């Protein structure tokens, strides 16, 4: 039997060529995308997916061409939230066409492919060893998705990242320095502490961190039309990156996400907050404000 040190070069696997080919396909596929923004946190359940979809909606309403890649392959939520669970994947002119929401946001989400009653399985070389392959397989899958779908001409491609501070940097590594990061926290010290770790980890690499959004910042009571306290925590986040805005908790937003009907109420506190953050995002990316459809 050959030992590890007996293998010459890539052992005949052509792995380097395969990686280079995939990289070229990804670069070509994303050539028409002006900006790449990953929405992460490190902390789970803070509203990354909700804000990704609703910020995309606010920007789309301004005429921007937007797509979302739900990079949470094991816990995809964009398909349900955006109402495209049953979307069909059909051939486009060169590659696979991206499913679209009724307002024209292209979305790839594993939730359109795999029903919620099933989990995403990766084949493993040997029983009980899936943990050694999982990250590799996940990023190989991300590469396949980036290379196989028609992203076309976009002003912005948003990545909805899974939780995990260490995974946030893995995505930064994989997506490369073109991708900027928008981080989401909630006003609890527990969440802020994890987001601070993501900021620290990202600061070691070349990716730009645009800032953070504080979600669930107060509770919006529709009965009394007032913002009430939700988390009792020190006012300042202590995060040394710009704050692009705060979004209150609004039960209607959660209900709309569950029902697959994104909330579009510009005159509510959530709507105004999203408008503000959308503008901050445009300013920090220096996207011109001319409407495009
Ligand atoms: N501002 C808000 N008002 C009301 N509900 C919200 C708000 N933000 C998020 N939610 C709800 O909180 C839950 C968690 O949000 P979401 O799935 O977006 O978090 P996440 O950070 O993407 O989670 P994960 O780490 O699992 O990917 C969802 O049910 C969502 O609808
Ligand atoms: Mg999510």
Description of the molecule:
This protein has 293 residues and is α/β, with parallel strands linked by helices. Helices cover 35% and strands 18% of the residues. It contains 8 helices and 8 strands, in the order H-E-H-E-H-E-H-E-H-E-H-E-E-E-H-H. Strands 1, 2, 3, 4, 5, 6, 7 and 8 form an 8-stranded mixed β-sheet that branches. Strand 5, helix 6 and strand 6 form a beta-alpha-beta unit. Helix 1 crosses helix 4 and helix 5 runs parallel beside helix 6. The protein is globular. It starts with 14 loop residues before the first helix and ends in an 8-residue tail after the last helix. 38% of the residues are buried. The site of magnesium ion has 5 residues, from helix 2. Magnesium ion binds next to helix 2.
User: What order do the SSEs take from the amino end to the carboxyl end, as H and E?
Assistant: HEHEHEHEHEHEEEHH
Small molecules bound: adenosine-5'-triphosphate, magnesium ion
Structural class by SSE content? alpha/beta
Bulk shape? globular
Task: Report the mean per-residue pLDDT as an integer.
Answer: 92
Rg over C-alpha atoms, rounded to the nearest angstrom? 20 Å
Task: Return residue spans where pLDDT drops below 50 for at least 5 consecutive residues.
Answer: none
Number of helices: 8
